[in-house]
Amino acid sequence: MIEDEEYVICPSSMPNDIKYKQYPWRWYVLAVTCLLALTNAAIWISFSAVGAHVNVFYCDDSYFVNKENVTKFPTNEFLFNSKNVPCDIAYWNNQIFQIVGCIGGIFGIFVTDKYGIRVSTYCASILNFIGIILRTMSAIPALNHSWRLSLLYMGQTLAASAQPFFIVLSPKVAENWFSDNQRAFANALSFAANPAGVVLGSVVPELIFHENFSIRNDYGLLWLNTLLLGFGATVMILTFGMQTSLPPTPPSASSATDHYPPFFQGLFALFKIPTFYIQIIVFALAFGLQWSLFISIEPMLTQLGYEYIGFSSALSAIAGCASSLIAGCYVDKTKNFSQVIKGSSIGVAIVACCINGFIRHHQGSVWDYLIMGFLLMLLGFFSIPAFPIGLELGIETTFPIAEASSSGVLIIFSQLMLFLLSAIINYSPQLDFFYFTQISSGGKDNKFLLTENFQLSMDIWTGIAVIFMLFTCFALWPKYKRLEFERRTTLHSKESTEEV
């Protein structure tokens, strides 16, 4: 196991009077990384709220026997071909991000650690831009369906390939550009860009597809992708305004440390830290529980009569952005990382139980809409702060291993967890188990029964949320190595951080 003393500057050898500096340019660097994350998240989630329309547009002709023109937009039904194979293009289009994130994560971590913030940001913005160009081309109605689908998957894969480069930047930007009393806030602000992108990617499709489309080859998806293309181009231009990865003078003692272990040695050392395994499970569950629900919940909510599911996702993300910033300020002042995450886990479990119970008693009134929207807001309020605080905690407990390595591993496992939970929630409704549905009861015209076993999937999701709470509260007891190092440094020197 790597000893701290081998890779950190010994406090006793430091000058007696140390001055660290914060530069105004740090806000531009942070803004660019935030906008990059926001745009990429919007590209990722934008097809979820209109999944049925995506399937209608991209599925080939075998799914439309005697249905050349779709006279009514199918909001809550899967398309099946003559061999009874479902068309899941919208679902797999979202899952591409998780698959690519897991596969390319290590490479993105390596580039960020070795070449720094600027190179990693350049790579991410270019891939993001090319990806949305191809996706926009795929939405041209004049293209035949084989070309549509090929361009869609190619574009989505390239946009997803941007993830490994920028998604580990938030803790690195916070560490290298911000002092210790602003790091958690900067990290929270950077990570809040992800749910802000979810807001953009959820609301805009709802505004574009606010009416049923009468034909299969409409222009709605083309307008949506063109708008996202404009955002992607703007962010890429802003990215090229970044001239350096590091400030001339570091903002804190830990950022002045240049004795990080070699990349692969540090990566392997992470898995020799027992508490890091606990953090992987906690972080991955927090990430997966929130977003897996919104990726897969559309068919169930539309059957229950909840229209405009995208607005619910947006409300949840907005609440999560606000709570993340509050949590970041609180942690900067108190350093209570684990307490915030434990509080989040308790809130997630309680809200999950409330959602599970509430959907069983849907009455179709206005109050149902308000209560469901409020519960989804609470879910985002409690779950999203666990992301930035969890990343910051990972860096604290694995210091002096490079920030991108520890945060990158956490994010890779969170993408894997999101992939698994999304698959469970998406496919468990097809099981004929425990609950009656229209198919299992033989009563296809019974409006009081759901067409699929959605209640089973909600039970599974709720059970995982409760397990997440219990595990977090009883197992998460970390040691803050970075804070201890900075306190030791303070004891041996007169340390100050000034604003330039």
From TrEMBL:
Domain of life: Eukaryota
Name recorded for this polypeptide: Major facilitator superfamily (MFS) profile domain-containing protein
Organism for this UniProt entry: Panagrolaimus sp. PS1159
